[in-house]
Automatic annotation (TrEMBL):
Listed transmembrane segments: none
Coiled-coil ranges from the UniProt annotation: 265-292
One MF annotation (Gene Ontology) recorded for this entry: ATP hydrolysis activity
Domain annotation Rad50/SbcC-type AAA: ranges: 5-285
Listed name of the protein: DNA sulfur modification protein DndD
This protein's UniProt keywords: Coiled coil
Organism for this UniProt entry: Acinetobacter parvus NIPH 1103
Gene Ontology BP term (one): double-strand break repair
Length: 668
C-alpha cells in the first residue's frame, strides 16, 4: 500500500482546504526516498493528520469497539471548525493497494455536514481506478475497507509516541492485543466462546453446572456496566476536550478584548501616579541645577577663557606683593639705614602705607559681582566641578526623565485600553464559569476511571470463574456424543490458537532480536527473547543465558525495545503498509535517536510518514535523512485565519527564509 495524497476540508485546525502529496519519489539514478517529513509544534495539527487517516479508513471503528453512534457523531461535530462558515467537513484519502500482484488506485472520501434540521449526516464514497466500486454493495463498503486493511494490523503501522510508551512501560496487555490482532486470534476466541455457549445451553443440567448460569449472568451484567461506564467515560472525555478548546477560545477573546489589561487597572493607575511623582522630582532637580551652575554649561568657551584669566591674575597679584615685601626687607638691611636718614617712624609710615595700599586694592575688588573672585582657588574648583559633576548629573537626569515620560505614555495607553474594555467582566465571568466546570469534569473523570478499573478487575475474576466452570462442562461433554463435536471443536480451537501463537511468536522473536540489536548498534547484546504465550511477559536473553527483565533496561533502551517490537510485529504480519509515526522521539536520548535516524526510519517501510517537532528531528537529523526524504511539510498555525497552514519545507527551511528576509531588510 502507498498513500498518494490526503485532503482535509474543514477538519479541526485545518479549517481551510489542505492537501498533502505523500507519494515517495522513485528514480533509477537515486536511492529510494521513502520518508515524508511533516514538522509542526505541539498543537499545530500533527495528531489530527494521523487521526484523519484512521477516520477515513475506518469511520466509527477508528474510535474503538465500544463507541456508539451518538458518541461518534459528537466526535465528528467536534472536528468541524467553529470559524468556518460552511458546516461541512471532508477527508479524502487516495492510495494504491496491490491485490494479487495487480496494483489498484483507491479513493476514500468521507464527509459529514449539519443539515437544516440540525442533524448530522455522514456519507462515504469509495472509488477504484477512478470509478465507483460496484463489486461490493455500497452498504458493505465499510466492511470492505476493514478487510482490505484490518484495524488491528494498521495499529502496528500507524502509531504515536503513546503506543511506544505503553509497550515500553511493561504494558503486557498492549503487546497481547498487538499479537492477537496480528494473528486474527480475536475471531478464534469469539468462535470458541460461541461453542461454550452452545454446550452450556444444551447440557447445563446434565453437567450439573447450575452455577454457570449465575456466573454468566453476573458476567453479562458486569460487561453491560463496563460498556455503559466506558461510553460515559468517552462522552466525558469528548466534553472535556471540547470544554478545553472552548476555554482557550474564551481566554484568547478575553485577552484580545483587553480583559487581561482591565484586571490590572488599579495597578496601572498606581503606576501612573508614581511615574508623575518621579517626573516632577526630575523637573525639580533640573530646576535646582538651572538656578545654580547649569547656565554656565551653555558657554563652554567663555568659561574656559575666564578660568585661564582667573588663574593668571591670581598668580600676578600674589607675585607682586611678594616682590615688594622682599624689596623693602632688602632696603631696610642696606647702608641707607646707617645714614640715619630713616627713623623708626619713617619705617612705620612706609609699612603702614604699603599695607593700606594693598587693602585698598582688595576693597576695590570686593564688589558683590566679584565676590567669588576673592578666593580664586575656590572659584576654579567650582568651575571644574561644573564641567565634571554638573554635566554628568544633568545627562543622567535627562535620560531618566525621557524614560519616565515613555513609561507614562505606555501606561496611559494601557489605562485607556482597559477603560474601553466594557465587556471584559462578562468575558471573565464566563471564563471562570467554564474553568469551574472543567474542574468538576476532571473530578468526575477521575471517579469514573477508578470505577472502570475496579469493574475491569471484577470482570477478570468472574471470567476466571466462568473459565473454570466451562472447563468442567467441556470435560463432561466430551463423554456425550451429541455435544462431543462442539467440545472437541473447542479443544481444537484452543490447540490451534496455541500452535498459531507459538509459531508466530517464534517469528516475532527472531525478527525482534535482529532489529533490537541493530537499533542498539550492539551486534549480540541479546541472543533471544522469551515471550510467554499465556501472559505475554517478556525476558531478554543474553549470550551467557542471563535473563534480563524489561524493567532493568534504561529509559532509552525501553523505547528502543518498544520500537523494535512494533517493527518486528509489522514485519511478521507480511503486510506492506506505510509506516506513520507521530512524535516518536520524545523520551529518547541523543545516542538512541542517532540510531533510529540511521537504521530505523530509512528502512522500516517503503513509505514512512514522520510527524515531528523541531526538538525531536532537528537540523542535524534533517541533514542525515535528507537523501531519504521525498517531501517535507511544515504545519504553521495562522492566528489571523484561526487555521493551520501547510508550508513546503521543514523548520530548517523556515529559519533559512526568515534569515534571508532579515538580511534583505538590513541591506535595504
Amino acid at each position: 500500500m502507498i498513500i498518494k495524497s490526503l485532503i482535509l476540508d474543514n477538519i479541526g485546525l485545518y479549517s481551510q482546504h489542505t492537501e498533502f502529496s505523500l507519494e515517495p519519489k522513485k528514480s533509477s539514478n537515486t536511492p529510494n526516498k521513502p520518508i515524508i517529513l511533516i514538522g509542526g509544534r505541539n498543537g499545530a495539527g500533527k495528531t489530527t493528520f494521523l487521526d484523519s487517516i484512521r477516520l477515513a479508513l475506518y469511520g466509527k471503528r477508528a474510535l474503538g469497539l465500544g463507541i456508539g453512534q451518538k458518541e461518534y457523531h459528537q466526535y465528528l461535530l467536534s472536528k468541524i471548525s467553529q470559524n468556518h462558515l460552511d458546516r461541512t467537513s471532508k477527508i479524502e484519502l487516495n492510495f494504491i493497494y496491490t491485490e494479487g500482484s495487480i496494483p489498484a488506485e483507491f479513493t476514500v472520501c468521507r464527509s459529514w455536514a449539519i443539515g437544516s434540521d440540525g442533524q448530522l449526516r455522514e456519507s462515504l464514497d469509495l472509488r477504484k481506478n477512478g470509478g465507483t466500486v460496484t463489486s461490493v454493495p455500497e452498504q458493505e463498503w465499510e466492511n470492505f475497507l476493514l478487510e482490505l486493511i484490518p484495524v488491528g494490523i494498521s495499529q502496528l503501522f500507524f502509531f504515536d509516541g503513546e503506543k511506544i510508551q505503553d509497550i515500553a512501560e511493561d504494558n503486557n496487555g498492549m503487546l497481547s492485543d498487538a499479537i492477537k490482532n496480528l494473528l486474527g486470534i480475536d475471531l478464534i476466541e469469539k468462535l470458541r466462546l460461541d461453542l461454550h455457549s452452545y454446550l452450556n445451553r444444551n447440557k447445563l443440567n446434565d453437567a450439573g453446572q447450575n452455577d454457570i448460569g449465575v456466573i454468566t449472568q453476573r458476567l453479562d451484567h458486569l460487561k453491560s456496566q463496563e460498556t455503559t461506564l466506558k461510553n460515559e467515560c468517552v462522552q466525558l472525555k469528548f466534553e472535556h476536550q471540547a470544554l478545553l478548546k472552548n476555554i482557550e477560545q474564551k481566554r484568547l477573546r478575553f485577552v484580545s478584548e483587553g480583559g487581561a489589561i482591565a484586571l490590572k487597572y488599579d495597578q496601572l493607575k498606581n503606576k501612573l501616579t508614581q511615574l508623575n511623582k518621579e517626573i516632577n522630582g526630575c523637573k525639580q532637580e533640573l530646576t535646582n541645577l538651572a538656578n545654580n551652575l547649569l547656565p554656565f554649561l551653555f558657554a563652554p568657551k567663555l568659561i574656559s577663557k575666564f578660568m585661564g584669566h582667573l588663574e593668571s591674575s591670581s598668580a600676578d597679584q600674589s607675585a607682586s606683593r611678594h616682590l615688594l615685601e622682599q624689596t623693602l626687607a632688602s632696603f631696610q638691611s642696606s647702608s641707607v639705614q646707617k645714614k640715619e636718614l630713616w627713623t623708626e617712624d619713617h619705617w612705620e609710615n612706609l609699612n603702614q602705607f604699603l599695607k593700606d595700599y594693598f587693602n585698598t586694592q582688595s576693597e576695590l575688588s570686593s564688589h558683590p559681582a566679584f565676590s567669588e573672585l576673592t578666593k580664586p582657588k575656590q572659584s576654579l574648583a567650582k568651575l571644574i566641578d561644573l564641567e565634571i559633576e554638573t554635566k554628568t548629573q544633568v545627562q543622567t537626569l535627562y535620560t531618566h526623565f525621557v524614560y519616565l515620560n515613555q513609561e507614562k505614555e505606555a501606561t496611559e495607553f494601557s489605562i485607556a485600553r482597559a477603560e474601553n474594555a466594557e465587556d471584559s467582566n462578562a468575558y471573565l465571568d464566563e471564563l471562570l464559569q467554564k474553568e469551574r466546570k472543567l474542574g468538576e469534569l476532571d473530578l468526575i473523570l477521575n471517579q469514573k476511571d477508578e470505577e472502570y478499573r475496579k469493574l475491569s478487575w471484577d470482570i477478570v475474576k468472574v471470567e476466571r470463574s466462568l473459565k473454570s466452570a466451562n472447563d468442567a462442562v467441556v470435560d463432561f461433554e466430551l463423554q456425550n456424543h451429541k455435544n462431543s463435536l462442539a467440545a472437541k471443536g473447542i479443544k481444537a480451537l484452543i490447540d490451534f490458537e496455541t500452535a498459531l501463537l507459538e509459531q508466530k511468536i517464534i517469528q516475532v522473536r527472531k525478527n525482534f532480536v535482529e532489529i533490537f540489536n541493530s537499533l542498539l548498534r550492539k551486534k549480540k547484546f541479546i541472543t533471544d527473547i522469551q515471550i510467554d504465550a499465556k501472559n505475554f511477559n517478556t525476558f531478554l536473553i543474553k549470550k551467557n543465558g542471563q535473563l534480563i527483565e524489561k524493567s532493568a533496561l534504561s529509559a532509552g533502551e525501553k523505547q528502543i525495545y518498544a520500537i523494535a517490537m512494533l517493527w518486528a510485529l509489522a514485519k511478521t504480519s507480511g503486510r506492506h503498509l506505510p509506516m506513520i509515526v507521530d512524535t516518536p522521539l520524545g523520551r529518547l536520548d541523543r545516542e538512541h535517536r542517532d540510531n533510529l535516524m540511521k537504521l530505523y526510519f530509512p528502512h522500516v517501510s517503503h513509505q514512512v510518514i514522520i510527524l515531528s517537532t523541531d526538538t525531536e528531528i532537528d537540523d542535524l537529523y534533517v541533514n542525515q535523512l535528507d537523501q531519504f526524504i521525498s517531501e517535507s511539510y511544515l504545519l504553521e498555525y495562522n492566528h489571523e485565519l484561526a487555521s493551520t497552514q501547510v508550508l513546503p519545507g521543514y523548520f530548517t527551511d523556515l529559519k533559512r527564509i526568515n534569515t534571508e528576509k532579515r538580511i534583505a531588510l538590513q541591506q535595504a
